[in-house]
Write a structure and sequence with these properties.
The complex is a heterodimer of chains A (216) and B (348). Chain A has one domain: Methane Monooxygenase Hydroxylase, Chain G, domain 1 (Up-down Bundle). Chain A has six helices and no strands. Helix content of chain A is 87%, strand content 0%. Chain B has a two-stranded antiparallel sheet. In chain B, strand 1 and strand 2 form a beta hairpin. In chain B, helix 6 packs antiparallel against helix 9. The two termini of chain B are 22 Å apart. The chains are: A mainly alpha (216), B mainly alpha (348). At the A-B interface, helix 1 of A face helix 6, helix 7 and helix 9 of B.
């Protein structure tokens, strides 16, 4: 029993580390974009590297959790759901890395009249991610609260959609943006940032199914 | 010796089939969901069934004895064989069957054949218990479901750790269930042989004495254990994977509730304790573990506000209360006739 408890503690710790990594990556994503919009490029690049490292660490932790769940024969009944959740959460951190990497490579021009909207969009998308992490933690420890968190995930995703549409309308109606290609470029990045909230919503929907299955 | 083994063989066959089928009621979900490995389940099950049979098996046997004390070993052989054949035949026809009900029917068949008259008060007590036991299991499972849900809400145990606790819980409940199954159902297997037990009391190293009845029950327990090891895996997988789709925690609740009920109807110690404290006691009667488990599943379904209650199963259980003993009584009567007139054996 003691040996079994030490194994479960080990896996519990790794799951917690994995969730922390995703949450930290989300918060860094928000800060990185704020740096980018405020043209603090050196700080932006530092945060990109930090996100890259977190993503790399998370992949290792994910693989370790998977290996231990099988080799210690833990959760035979709901192992598939737990691994599914971990894989889906990994998509979220992958996406944060991809978006900041695209910003770094393509360096889109964010016009001053769109800056506040972009910041709000980044904040809203990250709020959806943070609530998703809350829901995932609740799935493991405080099952009855999963739904409370998921309601917030879906709320912030909807808000992000509204801000995304607002930015697109402003960009395409504006005379300040000289070329059509730049308008399309803005649309592209606006969709990518909002995509983070979409991903959180998609994982949240799967989580709600896992939660129904977990109910005794 | 050969004659003894031959006459006990029908009881041993009944024991084997009980081990093959009823062990799955206790361990099916745990093994079927791979929470507990089959080897560990089979070993724990066998040890505790034998312990239950030898230590607490006599209570339910006395009640069967009151219904009909079969005075010859050939008669006991025929009655046990009739019960075993009825179980086999009804299983083939995919009809609900329980060894407890089959043996009672077979004894009633002997009563009629021997003209000893049926002890109606014992029969009513036994039949009342058949109806009462799944209802009681349902009530206990219903209550336990709410208590455990509340406990889990308050404690917020991590899913991974909960998995470990559930696994341990399933093993403990399984061991208790196996003990109760041995204590309660050994009467079905060896109860009819107790008045004509061919063994003498056995002193083991001046430490303890195994009475002739206990030796009989030990043999029956071993037959059940052989059934567990040789044939129960397939049944466990079927029970775990298809019939009762329970989560490991609800499986724990169902097994625990059923074990408590089987224990209540088997333990002489508990009966004496309740009587000495002026509390209502439970009659010591062999009950059906399958029907008790179904009662537990229904209790869980009711706790979940009646979702997934299969009323057809309830109908089949009620059919089993009537059909099994009637068929076993007829088979017993016909078999006794053949045994007496064709094989020239004294059956009463």
């Amino acid at each position: 029993m003691k040996l079994f408890l030490s194994k479960t503690k080990e896996v519990e710790g790794e799951i917690e580390k994995f969730l922390e990594n995703i949450q930290r990556a989300g918060l860094l994503f928000e800060q990185a974009l704020k740096d980018y919009f405020n043209e603090r490029m050196e700080r932006f690049e530092d945060k990109c590297r930090e996100i890259d490292q977190l993503e790399h660490d998370s992949d290792e932790v994910r693989r370790d959790i998977k290996r231990k769940l099988y080799s210690y024969m833990l959760l035979p009944d709901s192992r598939g759901d737990v691994l599914g959740l971990i894989e889906n959460l990994d998509n979220v951190i992958d996406l944060t890395k991809k978006v900041v990497s695209h910003f770094s490579i393509e360096t889109p021009i964010i016009y001053p009249f769109l800056k506040d909207d972009f910041i709000e969009l980044a904040e809203t998308s990250v709020k959806a991610v943070c609530e998703l992490i809350g829901a995932s933690r609740a799935f493991f420890c405080e099952f009855s609260k999963v739904n409370d968190y998921l309601i917030k995930v879906f709320f912030w995703e909807h808000e992000a959609d509204k801000i995304e549409e607002q930015i697109k309308r402003k960009a395409f109606q504006s005379d300040q943006i000289e070329t059509f290609s730049r308008k399309v470029h803005i649309r592209y990045f606006c969709e990518r940032i909002s995509g983070l909230a979409d991903e959180a919503e998609s994982v949240g929907e799967r989580l709600s199914v896992y939660a129904i299955k977990r109910a005794i | 010796m050969f004659t003894i083994i031959f006459f006990l063989s029908s009881g041993l066959f009944l024991g084997w089939s009980l081990g093959a089928n009823d062990a799955a009621n206790v361990w099916g979900t745990a093994v079927g969901t791979r929470m507990v490995q089959f080897k560990r389940a089979a070993l724990t099950c066998s040890i505790f069934i034998i312990l239950g049979a030898v230590i607490s098996g006599s209570g339910a046997s006395h009640t069967l004895g009151k219904l009909g004390s079969i005075t010859t070993i050939a008669g006991a052989f025929t009655v046990a064989l009739a019960a075993a054949l009825s179980v086999y035949w009804m299983t083939k026809l995919a009809l609900p069957v329980s060894t407890s009900q089959a043996i009672v029917g077979a004894i009633v068949g002997w009563n009629i054949y021997a003209g000893t008259g049926i002890n109606l008060s014992s029969l009513y007590k036994i039949m009342g218990t058949w109806v009462f036991s799944p209802v009681l299991t349902a009530a206990i499972a219903f209550l336990l479901y709410f208590l455990i849900t509340l406990f889990l809400k308050k404690t917020n145990i991590h899913l991974i750790r909960l998995d470990g606790f559930t696994r341990t819980g399933l093993i403990v409940a399984g061991a208790f269930g196996s003990y109760s199954l041995g204590a309660n159902n050994i009467a079905n297997v060896m109860g009819v042989f107790t008045p004509t037990s061919p063994f003498n009391d056995l002193k083991i190293a001046n430490l303890f004495t195994l009475s002739s009845v206990q030796q009989l029950f030990l043999l029956g327990g071993l037959a059940i254990a052989v059934g567990v090891f040789t044939y129960s895996k397939k049944v466990m997988m079927t029970v775990g994977a298809s019939i009762y789709k329970l989560s490991p925690i609800t499986a724990f609740i169902v097994v625990l509730s059923s074990s408590v009920v089987l224990f209540l109807f088997a333990s002489e110690g508990l009966q004496l304790f309740l009587i000495s404290h002026g509390l209502p006691s439970f009659p010591l009667v062999p009950v059906s573990s399958s029907q008790s488990i179904v009662g537990g599943v229904i209790g869980i379904s009711l706790a979940k506000k009646g979702r997934n209650v299969n009323y057809a199963i309830l109908g089949r259980i009620a059919l089993g209360w009537i059909a099994t003993p009637v068929i076993a009584a007829v088979v017993s009567f016909v078999s006794l006739y053949f045994m007496q007139n064709v094989f020239i054996q004294q059956v009463f």
